[in-house]
Amino acid sequence: MLEDLTTAASSPTRWPTAYPQGYAVVDVETTGLARDDRIISAAVYRLDARGEVEDHWYTLVNPERDPGPVWIHGLTSEVLEGAPLFADIAEEFAARLEGRVLVAHNAVFDWQMIAREYARAEREAPVRQRLCTIALAKELGLPLPNHKLESLAAHFGVVQRRAHHALDDARVLAEAFRPSLRAAAEGGVRLPLLECRPLTEWQDRPAPRIGRQAGSGGGYGGYRPGGWRPARKRPACPYPNPGRYEEGKRLKQGMRVAFSGDTSVERELLEDRATEAGLHVATSISRLTSLLVTNDPDSGTSKAVKARQYGTPVVDEGAFGQLLVDVEPASEE
Q1: What is the spatial distance between Cα 69 and Cα 67, in angstroms, rounded to a whole number?
Q2: Surface-to-core class of residue 329, CB atoms within 10 Å of its CB (0-12 exposed, 13-18 middle, 19+ buried)
Q3: Which of 20, 185, 207, 223 could share a disulfide with 12, CB 3.0–4.6 Å?
Q4: Which of 75, 77, 17 has its CA nearest to residue 212?
Q5: Cβ atoms within 10 A of the Cβ of 152, count?
């Protein structure tokens, strides 16, 4: 852990030559968290090599479907109906991203949503690397109670005015990223940069059209805020369990992964990603469990307790997101 990040962030004497030359701090609000959900607003703060703000940009986007969790983002069908389509803003969005590292809080989610929108528009987002501020906070050893954006903001004294508004979330993240970047530079910390692989094709499944308001009987992916969630039957994992995850190695298709505690990303989305990567999502811990994902390994939840008893490997949400980028294929029989 770095000592006294506030002091370290004030004036780094030497800037690492390997650091990127510019950043695009991004936030997108969406109709939901699944692969077929759409972007409904987007914001970009462009920063220079040392994290100073150059400019910012914000747009609404007509998703051509139900706007999803209006109680979260506040964007109704009526507001979005006159907004531009993603294809209409794709060029301007691309200009904001060009030649920069995409920075986001849980960057894999924002990147996947952006990549899917560009694939739908039969274009390619000009992004080659991303940086997750959750992963950076871990590298710096920031004493955060959890991995939520508001906790990162509070640590650096950044005031959030409109949570879940893309422009304000991007502003908050940009203000928190600047001292994080400077602390990393002062400490010679290697930035946790990951490759962005654009989609080259896309096929949508039918979705509710805009105008069918979620709050009038629909919901967030079929759910209501704070309500009971019906169980989702996932397809059986087609791969055999290769055993436990080993630190420093890749996840392998067929591994049994369980989740416990609060996450900054919707739990169901994490489970969907794990399933899509070929992992077996387990609802409980046993001696056969390959990995437990939790942001609070010392908690008293039954899964965390059993993981300690069985010696089950544990990683947090940020590390799991990075592991999902490169899952090893199952062995051929």
Answers
A1: 7
A2: exposed
A3: 185
A4: 77
A5: 24
